[in-house]
Amino acid sequence: MKKTWLSILSLGLISAAALAGCNQEEGESGSTEQISVVASFYPMYEFARHVAGDRAEVSLMVSSGQDAHHYEPSAKDVAVVNEADVFVYSSEEMEHWVSSLLNTVENEELIVARTSDNGGAAEFHAYDHDDEEGPASEIAIKGAAGHYHTGDTIELTAELDEAVDLDHWHWYTRGNPAEEWETVSGQLGSTFEFEAAGESFEVRAVLFDNDHSEYAESEPVEIIIDDHGHSADKEAHHDHTAEEDETAGDLTISGLAEHYHTGDTVTLKAETNDEIGYDHWHWYTRENAESEWQTVPGQESNLFEYKAENGSFEVKAALLDDEHGVYAETESVSVVIDDHENEDPHIWLDLVLAQEQVNVVRDALIEADPEGENVYQENAKAFNEELQALHEEYETALEGAKNRVFVVQHQAFGYIAERYDLEQIAIGGLSTEVEPSPSRIAEIGNLVEQYEVPVIFYQQGANSAIAETVANETGTETAVLYDLEVLSEELKSKDLGYIDAMRDNLEALQLSIQ
After folding, report:
1. In principle, which of 79, 115, 264, 451 could form an S-S bond with 357, CB 3.0–4.6 Å?
2. Residue 133 contacts residue 140 (beta carbons within 8 Å)
């Protein structure tokens, strides 16, 4: 009897131990099951990584050496976001490609964390394609004729059925429903003006809100081109033969982007399907239809490379024959320059506002993984305490300085200047590649002398040639500031995180702020 009792007890203990082992394995498996987080570029990756800890696998979309401003998501990127639980980004002013990306993904359970609003309220939400529809507003396109002839000017007007304080429009065309919609450049208002070509097409209008998201769109309208079996008469811009006019119709410009920022390089190409024995080109620009065409010097091939300045403009190309006469020319295209009202998107460089961004990431992770709430709360709190401590270091180090001016190559440090009562003087604009004019260099030289500025800063990871040019002209030194737009090789090789880079920025600033 005693032996039987001991056997039963032994079996019970073994079963309990086995059950406990199973429960432990299940618990461990549950605790290590990670959610997937995709961060747009380096600062967002750093914030997400610190908050997530071991509960999430955080991946970086814009990787080493790539520029978040000009990045274009690949098909692989779209696939990764389609499988993710959370997508973290800063703002459309910084990552202008985000709206297009989110319109492409088909992950209706994706939590999207927009961490900044240039100092205003940040937000996160569960992504749903129904969000793209916006309010129940309708756009009607008016003014379409029964048909048009080739060469006619098509004039349409888009009208919204409610009064809203929005005026940013895009117009799109396609040859037929089987084709993709293409943006019509230069058409940013509610009025559409377009010269009819030889084939019918469809057109639609989209109204965007202040976050560059679609607010409302029209139904497609068919534009019928009917020349009644005859070619429309074409206005002769030059003394061409009829054969040359047909050649001109086959000459097109490719490579046009939807819009550019000041400082971007506009790269276009004039192309023709015909075999032509000429290769001498001229390119022309003008501000608008009321302005005269001006020849662009140094552009004598079919490739056009031009540094965008502040205003939008039109461009066309002409192919010259052996006698320097115009053999054929393209239609003009509109190059749209949109700097998003010159808003500074570098909010992550403000150590106080960065804490708000961290909190947005925290809340998004909790939304995606409620069981990890305590972990995310604790991690966010710990990281924000580090950010706050560094902010106080900045305050202590800079508060007593008499010279509060610093000169930068790239206008990226306005948030730091505003937070600590400093004055940023930028050689270029918000773009990273703005070439200063000789007059601008002279102006900077006077300011350097006036404020006795000892150093010219350039952003780490970018070409320092502009800063070096100004430094040579003014007898100053150059030094590095991290704008953290790019995950540079130096950051990787030195294993520098966000806190390290921002602490290095403080030490660098003290070279000028004294």
Report:
1. 115
2. no
